[in-house]
Amino acid sequence: MSPTKHTIVALVEDRPGVLNRMASLFRRRGFNIDSIAVGRSETPGFSRMTIVVDGANTMVEQVRKQLDKVVDVVKVSDITGQDIICRELALIKVKSTPANRSEIMQIVDIFRAKIVDVASDSLTVEVTGDEEKVNSLYNLLRAFGIKEITRTGRIAMTRGGLATATELQSAKESKTKE
């Protein structure tokens, strides 16, 4: 079975060491994590992780099941085949001169990105969108010279209903009974 890029979302208790334990499971299985993004969730005391990894479906499913057994993990889902919303944020510092500044600004405008910093020799661009949009803008700006880039990696969630605090608490309680 050929490797596929998987998007795994985990709701975890906001405690030190959780990220390390989760990343170690992927490392032990020989997976390279393409990106990992962690931030607070809608429920105080919980964080949501989005992990993008390449791997065969069966291997990723095994790792997902092992992640579900980590004490601080409340819920883990491989949302790869679902109807999802994905976004990434990038900050791109581009070399600029007075002669090419307006051309860069036009390209940025086409991508509905923003210029967030202007210096005498550079512009810093903020772009948000799917990975393809970020890559496309980056590839166009490369012609001017990239001084620096930073990317968040993918963040994602399924479309539709929202998990309530009660559902999250139920998931946590059922896990502690196991």
Automatic annotation (TrEMBL):
Record EC number: 2.2.1.6
* One Pfam family per UniProt: ALS_ss_C
UniProt KW keywords: Amino-acid biosynthesis, Branched-chain amino acid biosynthesis, Transferase
For this UniProt entry, the molecular function terms from Gene Ontology, in alphabetical order, are: acetolactate synthase activity; acetolactate synthase regulator activity
Q: A GO BP term, please? A: isoleucine biosynthetic process
A Gene Ontology cellular component where this protein is annotated is: cytosol
**UniProt pathway:** Amino-acid biosynthesis; L-valine biosynthesis; L-valine from pyruvate: step 1/4; Amino-acid biosynthesis; L-isoleucine biosynthesis; L-isoleucine from 2-oxobutanoate: step 1/4
The chemistry this enzyme catalyses reads: 2 pyruvate + H(+) = (2S)-2-acetolactate + CO2
The ACT domain is annotated at: 7-81
State the superkingdom.
Bacteria
UniProt function note: Catalyzes the conversion of 2 pyruvate molecules into acetolactate in the first common step of the biosynthetic pathway of the branched-amino acids such as leucine, isoleucine, and valine.
Which family is it part of?
Belongs to the acetolactate synthase small subunit family.
How does this chain assemble?
Dimer of large and small chains.
State the protein's name: Acetolactate synthase small subunit
What is the scientific name of the source organism?
Answer: Dehalococcoides mccartyi (strain ATCC BAA-2266 / KCTC 15142 / 195)
